[in-house]
Design a protein that fits this description.
Elements (H helix, E strand, L loop, with lengths): L2 H15 L8 E2 L14 H6 L18 E8 L7 E7 L3 H4 L3 E7 L7 E4 L9 H5 L8 E9 L4 E9 L8 E8 L8 E9 L11 E9 L11 E8 L7 E7 L7 E4 L7 E8 L5 E7 L13 E7 L10 E5 L7 E2 L3 H13 L16 E2 L22 E4 L11 E8 L5 E2 L11 E2 L2 E8 L10 E2 L8 E9 L2 E8 L46 E7 L7 E4 L25 E5 L2 E8 L28 E2 L2 E2 L13 E8 L1
Antiparallel strand pairs: 1-34, 2-3, 3-4, 4-5, 6-7, 7-8, 8-9, 10-11, 11-12, 12-13, 14-15, 15-16, 16-17, 18-19, 20-21, 21-24, 22-23, 24-25, 26-27, 27-28, 28-29, 30-31, 31-34, 32-33
């Protein structure tokens, strides 16, 4: 029996199990941790502990943050599912976050949590044999893809937050035969090694994606492709690299594929049924007053020889960006707080560049992270995702792209320094779709998948399987800030971040406009059976989440991750997203100007002594309980 016939047979059996989609979404993370070899160590034990106490010591790490999820389904057995995330439960024992690895052997009904082997306290033989062990203390930005031979490839970045940075790309391989209930870790390879210089003082690898050639008619089946953005000291000259493995992930050959394009990020990979490789990414607006001028756009290349050579970059579609922005009220304090938070594994990696003043803000919160607008929000920016259908039903010349961009004509003044086009100018974000069916000779005009009169759509992903397209994104159509001035926010949804009450003229700062039933962000799934000509969409998250809890930077600033994920195989679909429905809210005693009682603060325990407030002594009490939720359906 061929692999494809076997997969189809299994899919038919699994479809019986999932004939009626689950009535509720499922929590993927926030489960007890199991080490890959069945053993334990101080980190595994601590990540599994929900213990909490208001004393300075005694907390476990079972209620810490997870964000930026991956999701994947085994093509030969759709009951085998995997996921991943930036997992912050190791911070207390290792000093940094690590790549969380989660798996389900029953079609997503329940999940087991684990960690990629190689973290600094890993006492297993395989973990200590990993090239990441003692080379880096942090690992994240996880992505996943299967081949047709029961191998899962799990990739991401690894780094140190102080010199030597060693910001590198890694890929791990797991074997999971159809008859087994547990995936077997096999090895980790460093694909591209960053330099030991300080952050952004040399080469730093980031924003990774992965795909494996599963093409039904591909002469290159089994090839593993990884792309990422390589950042160099000259920021606008960062570029996209792609690495190819023809030996099952043991070795990789790397090449630059973004020649002639400035400001490249958010690459993604698609492989058609005949092995044609498409890579797409976001090109940023650049130097509009020169001959090198370029707009925000979806840029793409392709290879027809198994990744040996790629075409020159071409634009599939230009778009109006949707990048949240503001100004820090105190650039000096913000720069120092970003640096302090990053080096303590309590802020995103960009802050590790140094403590210099930070004027431009992609996220806003309290204290040193307070912005001129008075609003609280996590970062978000337009991104690009691409897919192709590798099954016999797929068009070998087709590739499908989604991105989140501003709706042209939706621009409006915000009345503050907050904006999504630029400071002071807001807009509506929507998910756009474009495709090629002739190998890239032409692309369709971008069209909105699910037009809504109010709210924003962002963090999209897309996958193609057996002649159907599936997309997922975050959606604020029901958020308390998504409406005209008569709504609880008090302002147009384009002029105020999610879950914030409109501020006419700051100060004072904003307050949370919820919570209430149906308010917050929803996860939306859309599917098309006619090659994207029309779509059917539905909300798949049973509880809508508020993304603005200040869980980072010493409980002063929110971070919700940068992406969602979706995978379809054999008629079964798995999607996942970051979720804060279980976060326990509270007050922050450090602030008497209203910022500590504005509804964005997580529960925390601080002691005032020697004229100052101490650290949060109960980080495991639920204030940092940011989790990954998922949904499984068929179609």
């Amino acid at each position: 029996m061929t692999k494809w016939r076997l997969a189809i047979t299994l899919a038919a059996l699994v479809a019986c199990v999932f004939a009626v989609p689950a009535a509720a979404d499922v929590e993927i993370s926030d489960q007890p941790y199991v080490r890959h070899d069945g053993g334990t160590d101080v980190t595994i034990a601590d990540c599994s502990s929900d213990a909490t106490t208001p004393a300075p010591e005694g907390d476990g790490s079972g209620e810490r943050q997870q964000n930026e999820p991956a999701a994947s389904i085994a093509p030969n057995n759709p009951m085998h599912m995997t996921a991943g995330a930036n997992d912050y439960c190791p911070v207390q024992t290792t000093g940094d976050s690590w790549a969380g690895f989660y798996y389900s052997s029953n079609g997503g009904a329940s999940w087991v949590n684990s960690l990629l082997p190689g973290y600094s306290t890993d006492t297993s033989a395989e973990g200590q044999a990993s090239p990441l062990f003692r080379f880096t203390t942090g690992a994240g930005d996880p992505v996943q893809a299967w081949d047709n031979e029961d191998h899962l490839y799990f990739a991401g970045i690894a780094f140190n937050r102080v010199s030597p940075t060693n910001g590198s790309i890694w890929v791990a391989r797991y074997g999971w035969p159809m008859v087994s209930t547990v995936p077997d870790y096999e090895f980790t390879t460093i694909v591209s090694r960053g330099t030991p210089t300080p952050f952004f003082g040399g080469i730093f690898e980031d924003k990774v994606q992965i795909e494996v050639d599963k093409g039904a008619n591909s002469p290159h089946a089994g090839n593993v492709y990884i792309c990422w953005a390589r950042f160099v000291p000259s920021g606008s000259n960062n570029f996209v690299e792609l690495a190819t493995s023809t030996d099952g992930g043991r070795t990789f050959k790397t090449q630059k594929i973004s020649d002639g394009v400035h400001g490249n990020q958010f690459c993604d990979i698609a492989v058609t049924r005949n092995g044609t490789v498409f890579v797409a990414w976001r090109q940023f607006e650049f130097n509009q007053q020169s001959a090198q001028a370029q707009d925000n756009a979806v840029v793409w290349v392709k290879s027809t020889d198994g990744g040996k050579q790629f075409t020159k970059p071409e634009v599939a579609a230009e778009f109006l960006h949707w990048d949240l922005t503001d100004h820090f009220g105190s650039p000096e304090a913000a720069g120092q707080a970003r640096f302090t938070g990053c080096t303590a594994a309590d802020y995103t990696l960009g802050g590790c560049a140094g403590p210099e003043p930070a004027f431009h803000a992609r996220d806003c919160g309290d204290g040193p992270f307070a912005c001129s607008s008075g609003y609280v929000f996590a970062r978000s920016a337009s991104q690009v995702r691409i897919t192709a259908d590798p099954t016999p039903a797929g068009n070998p010349n087709a590739a499908y792209v989604v991105y989140d961009g501003s709706v042209p004509g939706s621009q409006t003044p915000t009345g503050t320094s907050y904006g999504s086009i630029e400071a002071g100018i807001g807009s509506q974000a929507s998910i756009y779709f474009t495709k090629t069916t002739n190998g890239g000779a032409s692309w369709t005009a971008p069209a909105r998948i699910d037009p809504q009169l109010k709210g924003h759509q962002f963090f999209p992903d897309i996958d193609a399987d057996n002649g159907r397209l599936h997309a997922v994104w975050q959606d604020s159509r029901n958020d308390c800030a998504a409406g005209p001035p008569s709504t609880p926010s008090g302002g147009d949804f384009r002029t105020v971040p999610f879950s914030n009450r409109w501020v006419g003229s700051p100060p004072p700062g904003s307050v949370r406009c919820g919570p209430a039933a149906g308010q917050g962000l929803a996860a939306v799934h859309a599917t098309s059976s006619n090659d994207g000509a029309s779509w059917t969409s539905s909300i798949v998250s049973t509880v809508e989440t508020m993304p603005q809890y200040e869980q980072f930077g010493n409980r002063d600033v929110p971070f919700f991750g940068d992406y969602n994920y979706i995978d379809a195989s054999g008629g079964v679909v798995l999607m996942d997203w970051t979720d804060e429905r279980e976060t326990v809210s509270g007050t922050d005693p450090r602030y008497t100007n209203g910022d500590g009682t504005d509804g964005f603060d997580p529960i925390q325990c601080r002691v005032f002594a020697s004229g100052a407030w101490g650290p949060d002594n109960c980080p495991n009490a639920g204030g940092l309980d940011q989790s990954i939720f998922g949904f499984v359906t068929t179609g």
